[in-house]
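Exam revision sheet. Question 4 asks you to relate a sequence to its structure. Input first:
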Amino acid sequence: MNIFMNGLTRIVILGFLALNLCATAQAQTLNWIRNKADVMAAAKSEGKLVLLLAGRDTCSNCRTMKNTVSESQNPPIKALLQQNFILWYSIVDSSPDYRQYIAGMPASWSLPLICVIDPNKPNEYLSRSTGIQKADTFYQRLLGHVNSRPSPPTIVSFSPTEGAAGTEVTIQGSNLSNVTSVQFDGVDASFSVQGGLKAIVPPSATTGLIVVKTAAGQATSTTAFTVITGLPGRFSVAGFADLLLQRQDSTMAVWLLEGARLVGGAYLDPLEPGLDWKVVGRGDFDLDNKPDLLMQNTEGSLRVWHMNGIKLKNVRDLNPIRSLDGRPVVGVGHFNDDQYPDILFQHSDGSLLVWYMNGTEATSESPINPVAPADPAYRAISVGDLNGDQKDDIVFQHTETGTLAVWFMDGPNMTEGWILNPSRPSDLAFKAVAVVDCDKDGKADIVFTNEREIAVWFMNGANLIRGEYLNAVFGESNWNIVGP
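Answer key, structure tokens:
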């Protein structure tokens, strides 16, 4: 008796569950949107087609198509609609939006009007019919539209998996040739499909999923791309090097490097010093163990932004405020035995001059010995210790041939002058723009750019050890590297 009752109980319970499941499935009716703008926006966003049903609630044919044929599970019309279409139900007595799809039809046409529409061409239809369609015929019609569409994209992987704004990310998957947009956590990014899909992490991006959209649909990565935006309270951290960047509108930013890998970055606060002012060097002018920025304007005047990490503390004009001839600054380095950074200038005739500084006060000046390269087309790029003797050297590049040279210095005196080995990049579009110890081996390296790509020559004195491309490019061509 107990066994019989337990079995009966199970039958009753299972029957109850089956009834509930059936009721739930019936309750999940299709979602019909009544506003054209909302329909087209949703279809574009999800990469789906639009199915328009124009009719009246009092029309029996319309009710049949909407509530019976479209809800059919055999053939699986309902599932096909849910996966591939955004549904639009237009009431003909209250909305005129359906009328643009009846051009050329006889006056005796009958409700409902059924149109399949590509949301990228919202004022045209791919197919149309009027009146009731049998379920089998309607299913084959819809399936034909689905099968003729390009396949939606997929994302299999992306590399690198983390980086700062400006990092170039390679996205791998399928159907990634007709891409309309790439987003990092909802922020639109610039991208290229030549040689594979590559996207540039936008400045305002945050950590999140990558979304690729095409006319056939969209794909979302299964893992998040990690955006590195945080900087410590100073530019340089143990194991990292810095690059200073400035845009043509004078906006400033700093990138943190680990070798040829961009690992962090941030805009400076405030963002810009004014259109007439450019960053020309970096050094600790107030000896607080935090780098400051040397600025020069178009008239040759000089000032220091005393910084607390990426935030401005105060501004001090130099004394004197400019050299007598207003010559441009090459860079900031150490050319005597005190702790204060000094300033190197080069005249248009090639002659070099150093200001010995005490904070923002120039205590004296001295020409470099020799005063200039024999060929004035050699222009000083920047200052850095290439041979690891803890004395700053001067790096030059010939403006016509691209040949690179270094003066190994002892204070203001050149001890040796060498053409680099190799003497220049194989691609002359790359120009040397900064001298900085990227791999923190105690010997400065040389940074090049062709205004989009960035490369690093890792140096041992005048000899190239290896060259590597940075894992980031300039998403905007108006950024410049202005120094270490």
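Marking note for examiners. The chain has five helices and 34 strands.
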